[in-house]
Specification:
By secondary structure, the chain is an alpha/beta fold. Helices cover 30% and strands 26% of the residues. It folds into two domains: 153 residues, Quinone Oxidoreductase, Chain A, domain 1; 123 residues, NAD(P)-binding Rossmann-like Domain (Rossmann fold, 3-Layer(aba) Sandwich).
């Protein structure tokens, strides 16, 4: 039997429950993965609350989770290059909070041997969203990029990938995360009232692009600093971004991109920050932690 986290109504984190379910069938072209760790995203919390229910309702009982890492338990017909026992990282849709998942083999990459399970479990979703955002913005050497919520899940990946591209990166964060951002090669600034002035003080020549991962006033500040929407993207605040004409993006996911992120970790150019490791059976606790808005990096669910 597999263990999966489900919810049968929208609400607070306590609507999440661990239940038993039959092991999923493995079809042609698929892998069964015994999950060791899964990532928790703010998107998961918003889905659980019902933030998207008006235009994209879930079918109950519903599941969550878009990224996992684990060990191959079974190999479907037609799959080559993987064997039982291989350690892997995978991306999937609304099914990762479980100890067993089935994933198309073309959504599975190799886990570096020395990467921890928690690091591997939180890499795919935020890492690929960050990479997609930088591609959408065309970030390159010479750019001055402003990242809002720079110490969060997507932000932590985005600032490092941007620095690797040769950009100067300014990141908004609370004071307690400023040293962390400096360690990643980022110029930190405190968010809140007066942000535009603080950014101008550290970038007197101006910024050239902005990535928002928090929404709200951050979108207005980006627009004020850039004077137009062409090189601003957001992964948050659908309503405000639509009103301002700012592009809201998701992740364009691929194994090639996932393997590139893993390689960057292996060669030391990408750090994965895991704020907490929470047992799968306590998924509600993980959601409460993420919803504080003060998580540095990502929270990982660990199979009990």
């Amino acid at each position: 039997m597999a263990k999966i986290v489900v919810f049968t109504e929208y609400g607070d984190p306590e609507v999440l429950h661990l239940v038993d379910a039959p092991d999923p069938d493995v079809g042609a072209g698929q892998l069964l993965i015994r999950v060791r760790a899964a990532g928790v995203q703010p998107f998961d919390c918003a889905t659980r609350r019902g933030d998207f229910a008006a235009y994209n309702p879930v079918a109950f009982p519903a599941r969550l989770g878009n990224e996992v890492a684990g060990v191959v338990g079974r190999v479907g017909d037609g799959v080559t290059g993987f064997a039982v026992g291989d350690e892997v990282i995978a991306f999937l849709t609304m099914a990762g909070y479980a100890d067993t998942v089935v994933v198309p083999a073309d959504q599975v990459g190799r886990k570096p041997e020395k990467m921890s399970w928690a690091e591997a479990g939180v890499l795919s979703a935020s890492g690929q969203t960050a990479a997609t955002a930088l591609d959408e913005l065309g970030v390159a050497a010479g750019d001055v990029l402003l990242v809002h919520a720079a110490a969060g899940g997507v932000g932590s990946f985005a600032v490092q990938l941007a620095v690797a591209r040769g950009a100067t990166v300014i990141g908004t964060a609370s004071e307690r995360n400023h040293d962390y951002l400096r360690s990643l090669g980022v110029v930190p600034v405190t968010y809140g009232p007066g942000l535009a002035g603080r950014v101008r003080a550290v970038a007197p020549g101006g910024i050239t692009c902005a990535l928002d991962a928090v929404g709200g006033d951050a979108l207005d500040v980006s627009l004020e600093l850039l004077g137009g929407t062409e090189r601003i993207v957001t992964i948050a605040d659908w309503a405000r971004s639509a009103r301002l004409g700012i592009r809201r993006i998701g992740a364009t996911r691929s194994v090639r991109q996932l393997n590139d992120l893993a390689l960057r970790w292996s060669d030391g150019t990408l750090r994965i920050e895991v704020a907490a490791e929470v047992p799968l059976s306590r998924a509600a606790e993980a959601h409460r932690l993420v919803e504080t808005g003060h998580v540095r990096g990502k929270v990982a669910l660990i199979a009990d």
